Amino acid sequence: MPDKCNSSLLSIALLALSFLVTFSLACNRGTPPSAGPTQGGTKRYSLKGKVISVNKQAGNASIYNDPIAGFMDPMAMPYTIKPPAALDELQPGDTVTADVVVEPDKYWLENVKVTAHSQTPAGKSTPAGEKQEK
């Protein structure tokens, strides 16, 4: 009977080990194809999204981003913008592209470019000589 017991324990141990190896391989697939080269754990991803709000005092903008392959699903979240002067170009409703820079303990956007401007917000006047659309 001891041989059967040892054989069963060995089978269970091998089964557990195979699950562990499979799980670790699934979790460590390597750098996703959309991530740029890493420097000291820094990764870069391309972002496309729509500006929800801009907070110049905090140095960030809330952006609803499209899916970012290998990184995140679509979602709205605040992003620190670098350099902060880029915030001056952003308005709620603008469509933007940017690079998401991710380090182990922080993230931010660089190379922010407005690809489509929002309508002129209520309360802001249009420049002289331009007609305001209704």
Oligomer: single chain
Determine the number of helices (DSSP H or I, runs of at least 4 residues).
Answer: 1
Shape: globular
Helix content: 10-25%
State the CATH superfamily name of the domain at 43-116. Copper binding periplasmic protein CusF
Give me the Rg, rounded: 24 Å
Strand content range: 25-35%
Per CATH, the architecture of the domain at 43-116 is: Beta Barrel
Would you give the CATH topology of the domain at 43-116?
A: OB fold (Dihydrolipoamide Acetyltransferase, E2P)
Under CATH at level 1, the class of the domain at 43-116 stands as Mainly Beta
What does this structure look like?
There is one protein chain. This protein is an alpha+beta fold. It has a domain at 43-116: Copper binding periplasmic protein CusF (OB fold (Dihydrolipoamide Acetyltransferase, E2P)), CATH 2.40.50.320. 19% of the residues lie in helices and 34% in strands. Strands 3-2-1-4-5 form a five-stranded antiparallel beta sheet, with no helix packed on it. The longest helix has 26 residues, at 2-27. It is globular and about 70 Å long.
